[in-house]
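2024-03-11 09:14:02 DEBUG pipeline.ingest accepted 1 chain
2024-03-11 09:14:02 DEBUG pipeline.ingest length=262
2024-03-11 09:14:03 DEBUG pipeline.predict start
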Amino acid sequence: MSVATITNFPLHYERHFAVVRATTPELLRKAYRLRYQAYCIENPFEDPEQQIDQCETDKYDAHAVHTLLLHRRTGEGAGTCRVILPHKDEFCSLPIATLLDGRDRRGFGEFLTAQTAEISRFAILKQFRRRYGQEPYADSGFAEDASAPEISERQLLPFIILGLFRGVFSTCLEYGITHLAAVVEPPLMRILRRLGLDFIPIGGLVEHHGLRQPCIAPLSDLIQQSRDSDSLVWQYAMRPLLPLGGGERAATIGMRMAPVPA
C-alpha cells in the first residue's frame, strides 16, 4: 500500500481517537457494554438474555488483555478487542482450539504454546463504520484527498481498526507473545491482507456464528512485512512501540497510553 501522499498519519489519528488499555473496572465495563452492543444487538451472535447488565463477557476474559478505542470528541467507545493470553502453557486454553479438528490441532505442535495468544472480540460499532450495514469492519481504502493538510475524522474511518491493532501489538510485546492466532470472518481477512497483515490459514473455513477462517501469524513476520512496505500499520501501530536506537531494547516496551477523554 502506498502511503507517499499521507503525512503525519499518527498525529491525525490520535487527534480523533484514543487507544487505551482497559485495566480499571470502569474501562472494562465500557468494553463489555460495547461488546454487548456489537455481539448481542448489532450482530445477534450471543444471547442477550445470558448477559448481565448489558455486558457481554465469557470465561476467557479472566486471562485476556483488553484494548478500548475511544472517540475523543464524544468520549464514546468506538471499538474494542482483546488478546487472550496462553493459560498454563496450554494451547487448549485458547478458544480457537475448540474449532480445529485433530489434524489441524496437531499442526500447532511446532509452535510454543506458552507464547501463542489469540485476538478475539474484535469489534467496531456500527456508527463508526465507513459503510453502514455493509460489513462489521471499516474498509481499508483511503480517500483520494488524504494528502490534505488536515485529515478529517470521516477520512480516518477507513483505518479506524489500526487503533485496535496498536493495542494488540503492544500486548504481544509486553507479554512476550511470538504468534497470534485468530478466527476471522472472510471480509476481515481481506482487509487484513490489504493492510499488509498476512495471517496463515489453518485448515478450511469453520462454522462459528457464520463461516470463519482459523489462522495464525508469527509476530516477527507481521512486523517485517509492515516495516518493508512502510505501511500505515507500521507507522502507527508498530514503530512507536518497538525498541529504539540500533536494535537495543527500549527500557519500556508498552503502549504510549493516550489519556482518556473527559
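2024-03-11 09:14:41 DEBUG pipeline.report The chain has one domain: 9-240.
2024-03-11 09:14:41 DEBUG pipeline.predict end
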